[in-house]
Amino acid sequence: MITQLFPKGFKRYLSLPVLGPIIDSYAGWLNEQQYTRRSSRYELRMAAHIDIFLQDHGFQRAEDISENDLHGCYRLFRRKFPKEEGSVRVLARFLTEHALLKPSAAPELSPKAIHLTAFKGHLENDHGYVSSTIQRQVYIASKFLDWLNFEEDHNHLRFVSLTDIEGFIRQEGTRMGRVALQKVTSVLRNFLRFSAAGGLIPSGLDQQIDTPRVYRQEKLPRALPWATVQAFLHSINRSIAIGKRDYAMFSLMTTYGLRACDIVTLKLEDIKWRAKYIQIHQTKTATPLSLPLTNEIGSVIYAYLKEVPRDSRYRQLFLRLRAPAGPLKSTAVTSAFQTWSQKSGLDIPFKGAHCLRHSYALHLLRCGLPLKTIGDILGHKSVESTAAYIRLNTEDLRGVALNLPIPHNGQKEGDHESK
Length: 419
Hints:
Layout: H1 2-5, H2 10-14, H3 23-32, H4 37-56, H5 67-80, H6 86-97, H7 111-127, H8 131-147, H9 155-158, H10 162-173, H11 178-197, H12 226-235, H13 241-256, H14 260-265, E1 271-272, E2 277-281, E3 288-292, H15 295-307, H16 330-344, H17 354-366, H18 371-378, H19 383-387, H20 394-399, H21 413-418
Antiparallel strand pairs: 1-2, 2-3
């Protein structure tokens, strides 16, 4: 493969002292990961610079490199080649997939890392939280320890005061709203209770934190007029591969009200062509959901699978079309929604694709479907979750409003009512 990318200069890369023996495999891997010819040539040029770093540090074979060694190279690249350090991570991913990286010695944990590791184990073993929740709570706890300057003064946590806690919450409140800040205070309480149980801080501090007041359903769900949703779909350019993929993706979301996390977990075998239904594995509720496969959606998915090349190594329905190859993440769905929203020129004030789910629920409500049916389609566990969308049906709400009394000519409204 290296000879195709560098017909005249391939010998230079094959003769690299450290990476030369694997450079051709690396070039082939880049091609498999759907890197363009230009990008592949660039990554190989950067690999030559990485080889110089490895030589300077006494390495003779790629098999002798560890993850820590590449991390040192990454730090060098951040100084020497600003914004190009990603090439080190690309090479690291190749070496990891081919089992060429030597296991790194476990680094000595800092006091902060030891405390956070213990907190992580508490969340996992005692609370049974999922990995995403654990990661978020550990991140907030880490920021709190940084606020206390824990790395330089370990005793600061032992003598933490309510003033320290309020200062941290006040700092976080400058960049987030009340709903997000409420989650921060909840995590902070959890961390303070854990620290108090271990005798690291005085007990009772968690009970002295005021939670930002958030009223239930104080904001309307984000919904677009159904005409805008249809116009958004029609604005997607289906003459290009990424447009065909995104049109199929958003058609599923607007036909069934799927979440972004449900879209990215869909696999080829979840489309039951003969039985004419789609099997949805809801990530949020962890409950399966079966929905009928309409002829229109079946045609859209079939056109996407037929016309857009895909990597046969992956079973996910929607894949990345740019390097590196692989399945989509929920953030990619959000990014695609923002891109097509901007290109459409429509009045779409929302940044997330979840507004399509709200729009779909309101559309079904205005079509006269009962709440129970809407909830079954959306995969809600309770009617209360679906009832939130009633507040969006403003036209029907106006119909139940009481008429205000009209005062007589020359009289004030208060005088009319007193009589």
